[in-house]
Amino acid sequence: MRIATWNVNSVNARLPTVLEWLETARPDVACLQEIKCVDEKFPRETLESLGYNVEVHGQKTYNGVAILSKHRLSDVRRGLPGTDDSGVEADGAQARYLEAVVEAPRPVRVASIYLPNGNPIGTAKFDYKLSWFRRLTDHARDLLALEEPLALCGDYNVIPTPQDARNPEAWLGDALFQPESRAAFRALKYLGLYDASELGNQPPGTFTFWDYQAGAWQRDHGIRIDFALLSPQAADRFRAVETHRSAREMDKPSDHVPVVVELDLDG
């Protein structure tokens, strides 16, 4: 099974690009982030025509996540459980988390995750980022207790190490590279999750995001912020990982590129 994660940066604005990539890469499951549309505006019929079952957790103009699957989807969850530090219901109006079980012959649970950016630091937006991270970690702990194949896929909006940026100094004042953000990511991983890119020994400089501004793509000033984190039961079945850098050169590209993980779920 090939499971992809991709921040598409507006599914309708880039639909021809998304369709071209899906038809070429042919993932069995695609976790999409930042779809930037309400459920009713998501191009469901077009994607269903490619053989995908579709679940969406959308939001007007901002955020939004979706899961496409060649297999039936069940046990769908929209939004994280719990409340934030102020007692407000988990996600409120922010559509950032979607989870489902892919009913393959050997089922696998997947989540499409769009973690808050958190900028500027020192504001409520950064506090919300860290609070959301804590709720994700709490929920991941519960999911790991199920002891099933699990892939938490998405745009985590964190640069875990200096090696995950071409120019780390440029990010010192950014929420993505703050010690608190990096510590939150480590706390999530240390529950017992495995970074698929690390399992696949992808080389340094395998970035997943290049800003549209200041010639970042042309100068390869990229960062790695898109991850597929696997439970031990999924990691045991890990076979390969690919980062589709060529997607950044497509017509009307996203500023992110897809990451595709291959799991052997036959046995």
Layout of secondary structure:
Elements: E1 2-7, H1 15-25, E2 29-33, H2 44-48, E3 53-57, E4 65-69, E5 73-78, E6 97-102, E7 108-114, H3 124-144, E8 150-155, H4 179-189, E9 194-195, H5 196-199, E10 226-230, H6 232-235, E11 238-243, E12 259-263
Parallel strand pairs: 1-2, 7-8
Antiparallel strand pairs: 1-12, 2-4, 3-4, 5-6, 6-7, 8-10, 9-10, 11-12
**CATH class, please?**
Alpha Beta
Main sheet attributes: strand count, strand direction, barrel closure: 6 strands, mixed
- Could you tell me how far the N terminus lies from the C terminus, measured between alpha carbons in angstroms? 12 Å
Name the CATH homologous superfamily. Answer: Endonuclease/exonuclease/phosphatase
Percent helix, as a range, is: 10-25%
Molecular structure report:
- Helices cover 21% and strands 24% of the residues.
- With 267 residues, it is an alpha+beta fold.
- The chain has one domain (2-263): Endonuclease/exonuclease/phosphatase (Deoxyribonuclease I, Chain A).
- The strands form 2 sheets. The chain has a 6-stranded mixed β-sheet.
- Helix 3 runs parallel beside helix 4.
- Mean pLDDT is 95; it is low at 84-91.
Can you give keywords for this protein?
six-stranded mixed β-sheet, alpha+beta, 267 residues, Deoxyribonuclease I, Chain A, globular
Write a concise synopsis of the structure shown:
The chain has 267 residues and is an alpha+beta fold. The protein has 6 helices and 12 strands. The strands form 2 sheets. Strands 3-4-2-1-12-11 form a 6-stranded mixed beta sheet. A 6-stranded mixed beta sheet has the order 5-6-7-8-10-9.
